[in-house]
């Protein structure tokens, strides 16, 4: 897939370009808004990673202009401005996601993959499974080893999100935005509490354990080898 990175900070731009190339993407990099806008209008990209504070034109204006021109390319905004108002402004103008600087590359990559998957049709929209855990979406039921597991609505959504991305590390902030539709506040433990409750329901008394904590990064749903 082909990505466009518009970032005026040379070190940050090269860091993103190299990391995304190593992750398997084709990447174009430009260091100013006008060149970025021109490339976004004249070339086909699967996703644009766009800095907000550019030297010649603010990222808000680029997003607005692209949307007014009918361009529906996925856009992720990068900015040091982390207020709720700034995020709402970017999303209202047509951005698809918003990541505050400084950020970890692991989180950015997870968000990029999540955005790109929105354009990929699901092969099976009726049933999701891993090991002996089965989620029936139309019936809104979950079983493990053929035993019915009762979940709250939020627990069901959280497990569904894990099941759609098995084996991938999901940062807390990404879980917060995708499942709770909120900004992640490092001072709150709502994500950890919810995952602890979900883990108690689907892992307690069963083997293998499926929900794993990846220290300093987030959580993942996976069947791990004993050596892992």
UniProtKB/TrEMBL annotation:
A Pfam family of this chain: Response_reg
DNA-binding region listed in the record: 125-223
Organism domain of life: Bacteria
Residue intervals passing through the bilayer: none
Record SMART domains: REC, Trans_reg_C
NCBIfam families: cztR_silR_copR (TIGR01387)
GO CC annotation terms, alphabetical: cytosol; protein-DNA complex
Any coiled-coil regions, as ranges: none
Classification via InterPro entries: CheY-like_superfamily, CusR-like, OmpR/PhoB-type_DNA-bd, Sig_transdc_resp-reg_C-effctor, Sig_transdc_resp-reg_receiver, WalR-like, WH-like_DNA-bd_sf
GO-annotated biological processes: regulation of DNA-templated transcription
Domain (Response regulatory): residue spans on this chain: 2-116
Protein name: DNA-binding response regulator
Species the sequence originates in: Gilliamella apicola
Domain OmpR/PhoB-type as annotated: residue spans: 125-223
UniProt KW keywords: DNA-binding, Phosphoprotein, Transcription, Transcription regulation, Two-component regulatory system
4-aspartylphosphate modifications at: 51
């Amino acid at each position: 897939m082909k990505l466009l990175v518009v970032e005026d900070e040379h070190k940050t731009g090269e860091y993103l370009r190299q990391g995304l190339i190593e992750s398997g993407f084709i990447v174009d990099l430009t260091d100013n808004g006008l060149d970025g806008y021109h490339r976004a209008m004249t070339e086909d990209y699967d996703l644009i990673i766009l800095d907000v504070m550019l030297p010649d034109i603010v990222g808000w204006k680029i997003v607005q202009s692209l949307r007014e021109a009918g361009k529906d390319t996925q856009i992720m905004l990068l900015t040091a401005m982390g207020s709720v108002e700034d995020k709402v402004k970017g999303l209202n103008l047509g951005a698809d996601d918003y990541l505050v600087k400084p950020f970890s590359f692991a989180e950015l990559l997870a968000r990029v993959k999540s955005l790109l998957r929105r354009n990929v049709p699901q092969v099976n929209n009726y049933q999701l499974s891993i090991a002996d855990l089965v989620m029936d979406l139309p019936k809104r039921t979950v079983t493990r080893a053929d035993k019915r597991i009762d979940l709250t609505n939020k627990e069901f959504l959280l497990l569904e999100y894990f099941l759609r991305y098995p084996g991938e590390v999901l940062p807390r902030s990404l879980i917060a935005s995708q499942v709770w539709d909120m900004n992640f506040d490092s001072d709150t433990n709502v994500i950890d509490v919810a995952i602890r409750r979900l883990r108690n329901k689907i892992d307690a008394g069963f083997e293998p354990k499926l929900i794993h904590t990846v220290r300093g990064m987030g959580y993942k749903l996976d069947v791990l080898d004993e050596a892992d």
